[in-house]
Amino acid sequence: MVKDICKDQTLTEQNKEPTLESQPLDSALQRRLEINYRRNQRQDHTQLLDQAGQDFCYADCSDSYWNPEPFSLLYGTPLWDQASDYQRVVLNQLYWVAYYSQIISAEIATIFFNQTSAVALYAHEGFRTICDMLDLESSQERAHISAFRAVAEQTEQILLGKRLFSYPMRGPFTETMIFADTHQFKRWWKQIQLQAFGFISSNNSFLACQYFTVRGLRTLNGKLIQHQLSRYYQNDTDQGHVPIPAKISFYHFMDESFHFNSSTLLSHEVIRCLPTPTKFEAFVANLGIRGCQQDHRQFSVAVNGIFWHDPALYLKVYELLRSHIFAMDDAEAQTMMRACFTQESDGLHHSYRTHQEAMASYRAYLEPLDYVWPSNRAMKIMEQASIEQYLHTQRRALPRFFQELKQQP
Residue 164 has what pLDDT? Predict the structure, then answer.
């Protein structure tokens, strides 16, 4: 890995020498930024999201699907195949809770880095529109988080009497992936890296813009799933009776569409108005992209579209199987987990295809950026994922989890 980084850095250093001064935004680019900002203002869903969060009552939609059926927890696995109609509804609703709990984590970080990036850009002539645009987006992210939390916490409390995928509010320097392949030292080191990037990027215009390259990559993955989730509301002819969580999915997707446009404008066009990156700036920028690859290097059979590390989810799945919803004893729960996590299934292939689609879209997104390392451009870390590797990991990790269960008092 170190050799790869050194090789990539050498190739980056062959780029042309950096220029010295920022170029003003040309009128065409300024106009595109203003159009994106004004349109986002006009269609802002903040009030609708706030109202939806306040109006949500689990009893009103407890027997409804909140997403298209394939977007259900452990869809296409033996658990799904054997589940009753009621259990399938719960799995569908818990997918919503799990998915948007991850989005909350990402958006908390986004709020912080939107502001540090704006600080670095505000000193440039003609950049006010960008800063105003980011202020609006941060305000929208707060509305998203509030609505997601209202649904997730009430749902889990009523269904299970405790948290399963939701969590108390957290800061922007916490590990973004809430079920990651990590441990205490990795979490500490990630926190240090995020704090350092926030400090450096708040005084560096290139890195401020480059943050939106990473934000754009992460949003691309979201667009693959959220577009499909939003259709559940759009395709219903009686939208007044659509479950509130499905409405929230649609409102969120509409806001995020403009946020993705912002990321693309900043990371692909505004960045060209800045001096060519120094060797250090290119190095830091590529570490950020590499970090995104690391976060997304695996796929999850439990939650299609969120690249969680499934061994980190074992306890949550076990608790769900032992709950009154499935009422399995210890032996039944273990047998079901082996079937879901260590054997091929339609659900596993669905999740792998989503991972491949995301990787292809990331490559296309990075293609115009000449400072990107070859290993990042080709997504060398993500492309190592395979169904065979997934099963190998689960077949090693699951027995260790069962052994740890036996040792618990």
Answer: 96
Q: Estimate the crossing angle of helix 387-407 against helix 346-366, to 10 degrees.
A: 120
User: How many C-beta atoms surround the C-beta of residue 268 within 10 A?
Assistant: 17
Task: Output 294-299 pairs: Cβ under 8 A, ≥24 positions apart.
Answer: 294/381, 295/176, 295/177, 295/180, 296/221, 296/355, 296/358, 296/382, 297/381, 297/382, 297/384, 297/385, 298/181, 298/355, 298/385, 298/390, 298/393, 299/351, 299/352, 299/354, 299/355, 299/385, 299/390
What is the C-alpha to C-alpha distance for residues 19 and 27, in angstroms, rounded to an integer? 21
pLDDT averaged per 10 residues in sequence order, the chain, 409 residues: 53 44 75 92 94 96 95 98 98 97 94 93 79 93 96 97 93 89 90 91 92 92 87 68 92 92 93 91 95 95 96 97 97 98 97 96 95 96 97 97 89
Give the angle subtended at the CA of 341 by the CAs of 336 and 343, to the nearest 5°.
90
Note the pLDDT of residue 232.
Answer: 81
DSSP state of 3: H
For residue 239, how many other CB atoms are within 10 A of its CB?
12
Amino acid 14: pLDDT: 45
pLDDT at 151 (0 to 100): 98
Record the pTM.
0.91
Structure tokens at 149: 């939390």
Tokens for 166, please give them.
């939701």
* Cα 272 off chain centre by: 27
CA dihedral sign, ordered 23, 116, 362, 393: positive
Contact in structure between 335 and 78 (CB atoms under 8 Å): no
The CA distance from 5 to 10, in Å, is: 9
Residues 6+ apart with CB under 8 A from 49: 143, 144, 146, 147, 248, 251, 252
Contact 174, 82 (CB under 8 A): no
